[in-house]
Design brief:
This protein is mainly alpha-helical and 146 residues long. Helix content is 68%, strand content 8%. The protein has a three-stranded antiparallel β-sheet with strand order 1-3-2. A hairpin with a 7-residue loop joins strand 2 and strand 3. It is globular and about 55 Å long. The two termini are 17 Å apart.
């Protein structure tokens, strides 16, 4: 499918901005003391949990053995725990401990504060444009077909 040069340029610029934002956020994430993969897995567990290891591996797009190692590390740090599934004794679910939830939510607060300060540097019209763009992108990325 051929796309317009303007659309391609916008996509290229959005990609670049997203990468730069993520790099800045990773610096803020250092305060959690967790690696990026552990922090990402903990985020899924906090916001979607309790989850099975299979669900978690699928959400993080990694193979089950990789997710097992990540969860074992999170367990060793007291950030998650496994518990049996009430419907199927063969299945265990991973859930965040209060400490894990607190670390993740504190980290999210720091990320949002950093992003807020960047947005604050924009003039009001530009902030409104960003607001509208975010609303549009939310619809696209949260669509089940994407």
């Amino acid at each position: 499918m051929s796309r317009s040069p303007e659309l391609h340029e916008t996509a290229d610029r959005l990609h670049s901005v997203a990468i730069h934002l993520l790099r800045r956020l990773r610096k803020v994430d250092e305060a959690t003391g967790l690696s990026g993969p552990r922090l990402s897995a903990l985020s899924v567990i906090v916001f979607a949990g309790p989850v099975t290891m299979t669900e978690l591996a699928a959400a993080e797009q990694v193979k089950p053995p990789t997710m097992t190692r990540l969860v074992q590390g999170l367990e060793a740090e007291g950030l998650v725990r496994r518990r049996g599934d009430s419907d199927d004794a063969r299945v265990s679910r991973v859930e965040a401990t209060p400490r894990g939830r607190r670390i993740l939510l504190d980290g999210r607060t720091r990320r949002v504060e950093m992003l807020s300060s960047l947005l604050e540097a924009l003039d009001p019209a530009a902030r409104e444009e960003v607001h509208r763009a975010v609303e549009s992108l939310e619809g696209v990325v949260r669509s089940p077909s994407n």
